[in-house]
Write a structure and sequence with these properties.
182 residues; 20% helix
Length: 182
């Protein structure tokens, strides 16, 4: 009889072990189901208000228009070139709230912005690239075309950021002798 009770005891443990094993396997399957190659956490992300891209070896980082009042602003961002280059022209158009093009930007670029090889160039330190248009408004965007002497031309859509916000209120364009480029 003792043998019979051990056998019954073993049989009653089997469903418990089977249930525990199934729970573990199910947990692993569900846990690994979210793993993949195109998940958001594997995508590059720039923790900044501006946009970043590359053109012909030049790295454009955190590019935006800072605007302290409607209708005017200045370019902010950083440029890095592994080989010497220069930003020779900037042109563009603000985008209206409905996504259509506004009046073209009048952009003042005080001559080419020199990019020394292997050195970071901060636009607000090196050049006063100012922009104006009746349709330029913080909170919207603008299409810009940047022309580099060696890297070529880059067309990019950048945000127009309110420069009166605490993080930007002390930023101002660098001093340079400026003349309109478009």
């Amino acid at each position: 009889m003792a043998f019979h009770s051990r056998s019954a005891s073993r049989q009653s443990r089997r469903p418990t072990r089977l249930g525990a094993t199934l729970a573990i396997v199910l947990g692993l399957v569900l846990g690994f189901a979210g793993c993949g190659f195109e998940v958001q956490t594997l995508q590059p992300y720039t923790a900044a208000d501006g946009v970043s891209t590359d053109v012909g070896g030049v790295k454009v980082r955190n590019l935006m228009i800072l605007s302290k009042s409607e209708g005017s602003g200045f370019l902010s961002g950083s440029l890095y070139a592994p080989q010497a280059d220069s930003l020779t022209a900037v042109s563009g158009t603000p985008l209206k709230a409905d996504g259509t093009d506004g009046q073209p930007l009048t952009i003042t670029l005080g001559g080419p912005v020199t990019l020394d090889a292997g050195q970071l160039t901060v636009l607000t330190d090196e050049a006063a690239i100012t922009v104006q248009s009746a349709d330029l408004q913080p909170g919207l965007e603008a299409k810009l075309e940047l022309t580099f002497s060696k890297a070529g031309t880059l067309t990019i859509t950048v945000p127009v950021v309110d420069a009166n916000q605490p993080g930007y209120s002390t930023v101002s364009p660098g001093a340079s002798s400026a003349s309109p480029s478009s």
